Amino acid sequence: MSLLFNKILEKIRISKQKGNNLIIGIDGPTAAGKTTLADKLAKKINSKNIFIFRLDWTLKNRNHRENSLKYFQLNEANFFYEPEDHMDLDKTVEFLDKIKKFNFGKKNKLNIHLKNLYNRSVSAKNDLNIKQTIDRNTIIIIEGHYTAYTNISNKIDFNILLLANKKELLKRKINRVKSYRDPSVTKQYFDLIDVPSFVNYLSRFG
């Protein structure tokens, strides 16, 4: 991880020298360490001029997702299309389009207002609104599943895929959610939804 970390920091250093935005993608299956890496980078850079766009923000409402999974869970069938059915990745595409199309030579700052994002940490509803100012030196990190999705990856300057052993991923996920979810439920979700969706995604966009 240290070699990767240093490579990312070098990319950031070069970008700052050129006075350009740098858009970094951090992708990987559940519990691969995406959020940890993004947060460590932000802490290391120690700058207010960094913005982490969490792809979890694009999740559709919980009721829709739970209802769409009932058939698969009852029949123990694999679910392959999380990005299409459970997420609104167009929100990410629109965010990146605004940055890519903005002329930072004529105007110094781009003010962005992100609305109706999924608020995992507080309400578990799509009620999160974020206002962010982007300038030509802002480092943008797109963190979460599916940064290789074509309309996202073609706007990313440096895209990273984190991987880990399947058993290790499951162990991490069980440990992460053990305070509110039974391990057997976590394992079922991991086997029927997390893994099939991510493997199918990689087969199409990896």
Describe this structure in words.
The structure is a single chain. This protein is of the alpha/beta class. It is built from eight helices and six strands; from the N terminus they run αβαβαααβββαβαα. The strands form two sheets. The protein has a four-stranded parallel β-sheet, with helices on one face. It has a two-stranded antiparallel sheet with strand order 3-4. The longest helix is centred in the C-terminal third of the chain and has 23 residues. The protein is globular, with a radius of gyration of 18 Å.
Number of strand elements: 6
**Structure class:** alpha/beta
Shape: globular
Helix run count: 8
Extract low-pLDDT stretches: none
Strand content bin: 15-25%
For the CA atoms, what is the radius of gyration? 18 Å
Span between termini: 21 Å
Strands of the biggest beta sheet: in what spatial order?
Answer: 2-5-1-6
Helices and strands, in order, run as: HEHEHHHEEEHEHH
Task: Give the rounded overall mean pLDDT.
Answer: 93
Largest sheet composition: 4 strands, parallel
Helix content: 40-55%
